[in-house]
Amino acid sequence: MKRVLITLVLLGAAFLAAQTETGTLSLDQARQLALQNNADYQASQADLESAKWSRFSALSNFLPSVSLDGTWLYMDPATTVQAGGTSFTLNNDIRTFSLSLSQPLFLGGKIWQGYQMSKISENMARTSLEAKKLSLLTDVNNLFLATLQTQDLQKLSELDKQSSDLNLQIAQVKYDNSLISSADYLRFQSQAASKEVSLLQAQTALQLARLNLRNYLGLDYLPMAQKPPDSENDAVLLVLDSYGTQESQALVARALELGRSANSSLKLLQNGLELSQRSYSLAKGSFLPTLMLIGSRNYEENGLDRYKFDPTNQIMLTASVPLLPQLGNYANLKKADWQYKKARLAAQTATDGILLGTEAAVLSLVSAAKQLRAAKLALDYTQQSYEQLLERFKMNLISSKDLLDAELMLSSARLANSNAIYNYYKSRVSLMQILSLEEDADLDTLITTGANK
């Protein structure tokens, strides 16, 4: 019993250790894991395969159909045939075989339209798969950026806590030497306590972000997001920061041109519109005649000789013209017509919204790049100002309130710089999703194309 308890304790400890195990995870690794483990993405892949086979099924309707039929007939009593003055009794059982071929020649365009609609459905399934993949990668990017941002916020909180502790130590020395009042010393203590609370909140936010990333990717450990290269030396960021109104509008034009051909939502709208048009054409085919070619070769016993078959051939061309009633066909035609008009108007409205969103995403990216540069400058100036004020505080040249205000400004500048960095990255992710771009290099090429001209 004692050994069993020890074993259970060890297993429990191992389980807890596995739950708290950490590891560094890169963005590329996270994207690959999401594609491998996401059930919705795999379901979209299965849907595409199903659409492919549906197209082959529709293609088979163009081909002739061949069937082999056999009949065994037993009669009791047997049939008696009178031939001249002689009567013949046929066999009780008679066997018949036939080979039939049927080839549709014209069915009012139903076969052709059905095949074209199956091709459109396959294209829609493929586009949906691409959109699902892009949406999945976008979610991974956003979760990864959220984890990176909370990691950064924790580091900033640690820096703020260190600065606050250092100021409190200096204030302690001044207070012990009666250089500052008790009220000023309490302000430093309050500031230190506040920074400790902020650090605890940042640690909790980081833990939650890591849990979200772990659960989304199906990991068995808590990941630490690998930080991307420093954005300060990002050539694309410098290009965006240098853009004026003219360059921004040129980037918008290039993005709109790419979006019209690459945006997954626009592709689905266009496919849906074409599908509605095909449905209208299919409804018109209900008024057209149908033409079928049927050929058969029959093998039948004569009733006297067993297993001796006499072959006969038949070729038949059948035509059918619908006459009455036509009210249902006409109603279906008008219904398809109005559905096509509805789809065309809805596609136009959605297209305008997508193109407007594309323009807004481009301008947001340019603005985010400029804000990042401004936030970086503000942080540099605030850092230098704080360091100078700290030295002056040590020499009793400024008040405690001035130093605390400078410390608060430095903390705000650090936070603003961090937010500007990740707003820039999130703006890139948003624009990439609208333009259906999977790789950062594709977006970089789009941005720098105008700068190279």
Outline the structure in words:
There is one protein chain. By secondary structure, this protein is of the alpha+beta class. It is 70% helix and 14% strand. It has eleven helices and eight strands. The protein has helices at 2-20, 27-37, 39-59, 110-176, 182-217, 235-241, 245-262, 264-284, 327-394, 400-434, 440-451; strands at residues 22-25, 65-74, 80-83, 86-89, 93-107, 222-225, 290-301, 309-320. Strands 2-5-7-8 form a four-stranded antiparallel beta sheet, with no helix packed on it. A two-stranded parallel sheet has the order 1-6. Strands 3-4 form a two-stranded antiparallel sheet. Helix 4 (110-176) packs antiparallel against helix 10 (400-434) and helix 6 crosses helix 9. The radius of gyration is 39 Å and the shape is elongated. Residues 1-20 have low confidence and may be disordered.
Could you give a quick summary of the protein structure above?
The protein has 453 residues and is of the alpha+beta class.
List key phrases describing it.
70% helix; two-stranded parallel ribbon; alpha+beta; 453 residues
